[in-house]
Amino acid sequence: MIDLYYWTTPNGHKVTIFLEETGLDYTIHPIHIGKGEQFAPAFLKIAPNNRIPAIVDQHPLDGGEPFSLFESGAILEYLADKTGEFLPQNDVRGRFTVLQWLYWQMGGVGPMAGQNHHFGRYAPEPIPYAIDRYVKETARLYGVLDRQLADKDYVAGDYSIADMAIYPWAKLWEGQRQKIEDFPHMAAWLERMAARPAVQRAYALVEQINTDPQALMTAEARKLLFGQDPK
Question: Domains in the chain, start-ordered, CATH in brackets?
Answer without folding.
Answer: 2-85+212-226 (3.40.30.10), 92-195 (1.20.1050.10)
